[in-house]
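Handout, page 2. Input:
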Amino acid sequence: MKHNPFKPDPKVPWCRKCRAHTPTNEWGEVYFAGRPVKAHNSIRCKQCNSYMFSYTVMRKNNVLWTLVAVVTLGLGGLLFFLADSRGGGDEAAKDVGAYIGLLGGLPSAGLVAWHTYVLTRQNRWMKRQERKSEKQIEELGKIYWRSVSPYDGDKPDAL
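Output:
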């Protein structure tokens, strides 16, 4: 088989709904009146039209957002506690520290949690696929290419 979507490959986009490296629809720039309005790289699964994720890109984004969360939470906490340690406490500085920590750090921490969740699911799938024999993976690939609609990769009879 030329391309088996069930062989783990961290460089190829992965569909979390189909649980496979399915074919993709990719869009680049969005044009309005002949000018590029927004440049983005949206990769969607051809089978179920959900967003696909590249393992290596997600890991880089996870590291970036972890750093942003740590810096903003640390800066906010530092401002909050420095303002409190001055004796009487500077309420304006405490408020600024709390706002920086809450408004900057919590959304970043949420993105880190979501990226970690997606990466954990893909890691589990990759480990399950590595435990299977080459023959089992080939059979799953043949079943996949015969099917019209997506299914949960380990349960071909789930349709």
